[in-house]
## 1
Amino acid sequence: MSRFFNKLNLTPNRIVIITFEEIFKKLKLDFIISSDEKNGSSFMYFILSKL
Amino acid sequence: MVLLLCILSFLSCKTPHAQDSSVVQKSAQDSLFTIAFGSCDNQKIKNELWPDIDGNHPAVWIWGGDNVYSDTEDMQFLENNYKIQKQDSAYLSFIKNKIILGTWDDHDFGANDGGVEYPFKRESQQLLLDFLGTSKNATERNRHGVYTAKTILVNKNRVKIIVLDTRFFRTKLTKASGNKRFQPNKYGEGTVLGVEQWQWLENELKSSNAQFNVIVSSIQFLSNKHGFEAWANFPHEVEKLEKMIVSSKARGAFIVSGDRHIATFSSKNVSGLNYPLIDFTSSGLTHTYTTYSGEENPYVKGEVVNDINFGLLKFDFENNKVIMQIRGKENKLLQEFIQDYPRK
């Protein structure tokens, strides 16, 4: 995979950001919030991306 | 394929990895996805509500207009007032890890009861977008008006927030002759949103695949007898939006508004809509209509609040309902309205 990134002269993070934008556009989304309940006693959410 | 794998692995993570990821802790008692909104925040008065709003763990904050008070044609003065607002440490703490959206009303637009005729609306638009943290290459920077729409995926559920601009294109109002400030235009005369924004709005509603569609209007949509600013001053535009909501088939659509220095729920049965249309007004954050003694509103539900307040929208995706709350100092629940929405 690193050879792939090197070939494009991009870091893995850069690849993720580019693809997020494309995927968000296709899904007609601006933000993704993911929640994770732990034993019903706590609730966390992550704003995964902001465009 | 490699790129797709990268995305899927990222999405499946339970801890954030990307630089722009954020984490917010929520309490077990209040695990519904929550949006908070409010309006009428005078930068000269300390907003004491930020910690109370934050205590409800909203993921999104929506500025409903009159975000500063700056009736002016001096853009430096307007910019300075936004700076005062942004220097409030409680506000800075509040906006961490939150999605911030908003629109303007007349006093941050730049002219009391102002509309299309205001000469510095383009300059003022950029200052509001700066205040909201809108990126320099965002669409909103390069079109007339601050209207925008954002769709949020919350696990498998979608909420779309459609923010209207009721200032940039709004035709000058008609002064009333009696003891009211304005009177409705003749049916068909004038506009609130203007041609471009109406077309955009129709597309946003029709294309929405969200379970709930929150329409943000700085001015009240349903309350129509008070004689101040309201959609009711353009009766044909009220009818147009109602019909558009019906024909678009956008699910769970309702309106949030501000401007009035009071907070209230209004509910109207609209022909063709299989649920009541709600207009949830929350105003103001720092000052209110303390001498309010009642006004005619054929659609009012519950008691009108004239203490400082903010609005909460709690989305119960499982039961397809929205818990709407007016809260005030020390997070006191002042009024609550629960609206169930049909599944289809």
## 2
Amino acid sequence: MTGASAARSAPGAGRPTGTGPGRALVAVYGVFALAATARAAFQIATELDRAPLAYALSALAAVVYVVATVALATDRRRAALVAVGVELVGVLVVGALSLAAPQDFPDETVWSGFGAGYGYVPLVLPVLGLLWLRRTRPARPGA
Amino acid sequence: MTAATLLVVLACLALAGWAALFVARDRAVVLRQLVGGGVVEGLLVLQALVLAVLAVRGDGPVAAPWEAWGYVLTQLLVLPVAAAWAFAERTRWSSVVLLVAALTVAFLQYRVLVLWGGA
């Protein structure tokens, strides 16, 4: 949305976040949004009493992935930054807690063990997301 | 059921391989690949119908029926959404989208097979 002339300072600067490599990134985010939403809905609908903390975190993860997917797809950079940031903190904190206090995490969440159950993609994804948001950051005038 | 699932998985992997080839060649998704995706989607719908008939006859998922049906139904969404998302992008990254979608469906098929107890 910034002028094309101002966006030439770096390759990709100012381009919509849902285009080019971002299109593939959104696809992976979409898969995780689907997986996390389905998992959270299933856990909360069937056995919430068993592990309220883990399932609440599952729901949080689902919301984060859905927001990140939609925000990246529609070039809402601020929302994307918040969602991806929460995602990175979430996977690190939940990953560490699930290893340190496994009794509080009797069931897997997407972020358990730093996303080991999903090939560690949940750990890599927010890093890629932040790098992509930085790459596509609109060039500031005079910067 | 196992053989049918294997067929769908092979179809998904064929589609994934086709997409990977296009990624390597720096090409965007072409219409014929979407037709291929449509064939896979048709197989998935057929599978869902067969599973529904089996379930009605009392031969449903062994454990966690909610979860099993969740997989069967959500996997129907993946390819149509991915196709629409991929086709709007006319670069190699659209082929990456198709690759991700095809591998996702293949993995979901594996989960379906496990949850149905290999019935």
